Amino acid sequence: MAPTISRDSLVLHKTKPAVVLRSSDKLEILFQDGKTLNVRPKDVVVLHPGPIDFSEMKAPPGDVLAAWELLEETTTTLAELAELAYGQYTPASAWAAWEWVIDGLYFSGEPDAIHSHSRAHVEKEQRSRAARAAEAQAWTGFLGRVREHRFDPEDSRYLAEVEQMALGQRDKSRVLAELGQAQTPESAHGLLLGLGVWDATVDPYPRRLDLPEQPPLLELPPLPEEARRDLTHLPAFAIDNEGTNDPDDAISLDRDRLWVHVADVAALVTPNSAADLEARARGANLYLPEGVAPMLPWSATKQLGLGLAAVSPALSFGLRVTPDGGVADLEITPSWVRVQRLSYGQAEELLDQEPLRTLYAWATAHAARRSAQGAIALDLPEVRIKVEEGQVAITPLPSLRSQDLVAELMLMAGEAVAQMAIERDLAIPFTVQESGEPLEPPHTLSEMFASRRRMRPGQASTRPGPHAGLGLAAYVRVTSPLRRYLDLVAHQQIRALLAGQPLLDEAALLERVGAAEAVGGAVRRAEQLARQHWTLVYLQQQQPAWRGEGVIVEKNGLRATVLLPALAWELRVHLREELPLDSVVSVSYSGANLALLDGHFKVG
Fold first, then answer.
1. What's the rounded Cα separation, in Å, for the pair 456 and 526?
2. pLDDT in tens, 66-105
3. What is the C-alpha separation between 578 and 400, in angstroms, rounded?
4. What is the pLDDT of residues 370-402, one digit of tens each?
5. SS3 of 249, please?
6. Nearest-angstrom CA–CA distance, 220 and 198
7. pTM (two decimals)
8. What is d(CA 310, CA 86) in angstroms, rounded to the nearest whole number?
9. CB contact set of 500 (below 8 Å; sequence gap of 6+)
10. Across the beta sheet with 236-240, what order do the strands follow?
11. Residue 318 · residue 269 · CB < 8 Å
């Protein structure tokens, strides 16, 4: 049976001292703040039998250090410790001695079994406490500096977690919590910008979306020895944006045949090779204004890019264009081609000359056929954003016939390959798009904007299906294997078919489609966010007084979406007056929150 705890005893309830007011099956105890509580006897520990007066609980003079030295590495009781340290065992000295036990530097244990620590233990604990005190002082100093919008070099260890938060590498930040800020990457980004830890040129979005920004560090094998058809006698043209460094398609005219030559990536990157697995994990090239993170090593472009050497290896797709703009008689062959590189602007000047004149006529016929089959053509403003040495250049891209030429011929190759795959039951990644609601051909910017909103996204599929937006019964992307992983997979299947080698089955193909689609969304999102980021940097740092024209492309009362063609930027505004769609309004830049990608503009 537990001993009876007498009235007026000094007891410990949890960590607080109390006096026993009434003792029976339950104890009524009184705390120093005047509050009372009924507890079980086993819920308290007796420190002194009393009597006790809280007004006399001040610790008497004593020498705890001397007591510890006498008791070092022995076990004692609270009564003995109080006698040694304070020369008496009273409620006040008992509580004072117990506080040293709670402190834990010299003693630890229970009232009837208190252990006196060794000198080595005490010295180690003193060093630890000094370090904690210094750390607490450093933390307090850091917070004070941050609140004053400054930081010192030694603060980098605290700011590292904020950077991790801004890059999406952690979910919580002690710094943000202490400052009362939201636990979000945007909040962390804003803090880093405000302190000057980051400047505006830091683009966090690829890392926030867990995308690599550097090329793969892999070696590729040399081009294999194999028969290639010599097509070097045909003039071939790789037409792309000026400054493009990864040309992977070119076009030729061979009497009544169109040839679309494509970089023969699958000759070097075979299924399940290290390069194939890396490209699968990346999904596509990541195109950022500040540079490109390719899905394949740069050596792939160096070896296979069309027109980068006097003669280039290619996988060439030859086809005939029917009178109604259809495609027929597809042949596919590994080849050697001699390619001349042209910008869209240079090609535009050659459209009235052969062979581009005939190729453009075929492209026009194919486009008309697609249009008759429900294709939707959009001509929304586009800009090229380029960052070099911290300077941002934004260049509106003109709508050129040469762009239509190249795009249409690439579609013709993709349509022909899709037809072949269906005829030969070849498992290949098709691109399909459901039709959704019927759309009228758009003509104005607002109609094109609305059409884009209503279109359902295209998707990769192992089964053929129509692509409503393109107006094609079936379509396979095959013209960018240096840039898109599923184009490379299509090439791997085609090459295996040509060589009579084992093909990937539908399950293996589905695995690749799923992997590419999973990362593809992050790639597109990172590119979109990076373009918004650098547009705002351009306005903030280089064009703070920017003014331009906007076009109203969407309305809901006086709330409207305005498209800025010069920046390819959409903004939501509140109009001062009722204006019709496609009205042109004057717009001026007035500031931005870069961390939130929030640009502020004034209309009128």
1. 21
2. 999 999 999 999 999 999 999 999 999 999 999 999 999 9
3. 34
4. 999 999 989 999 999 999 988 999 999 999 999
5. strand
6. 37
7. 0.86
8. 97
9. none
10. 229-230, 327-337, 312-321, 257-263, 249-254, 236-240, 339-343
11. no
